[in-house]
Amino acid sequence: MLTNELKGIVRRPRLSEELSVALEAKIAGGEFKPGERLPVEKALAETYGVSRAVVREAVARLKADGRVETRQGAGAFVALAPKSLNLRFWQGDGPAQAELREIFELRAMVEGSIAELAARRRVPADVVAMQCFLDAMDDALANGSDGSEADDDFHLAIAAATHNSYAHRLLEFLGRHFSESRRLAWSMPGRNGALPAEACAEHRRIFASVSTGDPERARRHAHEHVRCAARRVGIELADDLIASEPLIAAEPHRAVAAAGSLLASLTTSYEENT
């Protein structure tokens, strides 16, 4: 049942993506050997029933991934040694349950570490940015609209608060794939506001711990958020992802109020020293 629901949510791959996956499988299986020239555009188009433009785009994707090399006037050849491999998610109509579980596990690992570092390094401007996107999610919740974009931006704001450009770029790179799993809370069929409300409450706890500079709570709240997000789509993550007991703020409104007070004091200090 979950798989059927996800099929209506997840972006369907383009023809060029499907073709590049098919060609990459033939390369990996040895049907197209290193150094061997791929069939010409016309032959590939006829074999797979697509246009030559689709073939060109698929070959361009393989070239970008380092799987093939093109030679002027000679065509495309399988690379002797792949230079890079593109990390892809969710091939086909929708994610398999096992793959979706692994994506949530990856989110827990990445977002937990990023939240922890952000709590150590955040400055007033970072807290303001996080608050802005948190407010946007609250507005979406109140209006019954899709707040997934603000959800993505909130997580990117946390990454920016690490002041590590590669951490931010990593989350941007993974963003579209993580975004699909976040969007489930905002667009699952039949939702009545309960799912996004739960997600917003979890975001407020992450915000409170990051903005008040509590790395341990930030990491644990980020882990807990991903665990709850997975549970909302019927996936129970393994206990070994989190070493400590779950950390739930009994009164999250007090934590957010404390964060607001700290922001005011941080801003005053920041303005006095600039």
Which features does this protein show?
two-stranded antiparallel ribbon; 274 residues; disordered N terminus; 11 helices; mainly alpha; 65% helix
Q: How many strands in all?
A: 2
Distance between the termini: 56 Å
Largest sheet: 2 strands, antiparallel
Helix proportion of residues, in percent? 55-70%
Which band does the percent of strand residues land in?
under 5%
Shape: elongated
Biggest sheet, spatial arrangement of strands: 1-2
* Unreliably modeled segments: 1-12, 244-264, 266-271
Order of helices and strands: HHHHEEHHHHHHH
Mean pLDDT across all amino acids? 78
Structural class comes to: mainly alpha
From the alpha carbons, calculate the radius of gyration and give it in angstroms.
Answer: 22 Å
Query: Number of helical runs?
Result: 11
Task: Describe the structure concisely.
This protein has 274 residues and is mainly α. It has helices at 2-7, 15-28, 41-48, 52-64, 97-121, 124-143, 148-160, 165-187, 194-211, 215-232, 252-272; strands spanning 68-71, 75-78.
Protein described:
This protein has 274 residues and is mainly alpha-helical. The protein has eleven helices and two strands. The protein has a two-stranded antiparallel sheet with strand order 1-2. The longest helix has 25 residues. The N and C termini lie far apart (56 Å). The N terminus is likely disordered.
List the helices and strands and how they pair.
Elements: H1 2-7, H2 15-28, H3 41-48, H4 52-64, E1 68-71, E2 75-78, H5 97-121, H6 124-143, H7 148-160, H8 165-187, H9 194-211, H10 215-232, H11 252-272
Helix pairs in contact: 2-4, 3-4, 5-7, 5-8, 5-9, 5-10, 6-7, 6-9, 6-11, 7-8, 9-10, 9-11
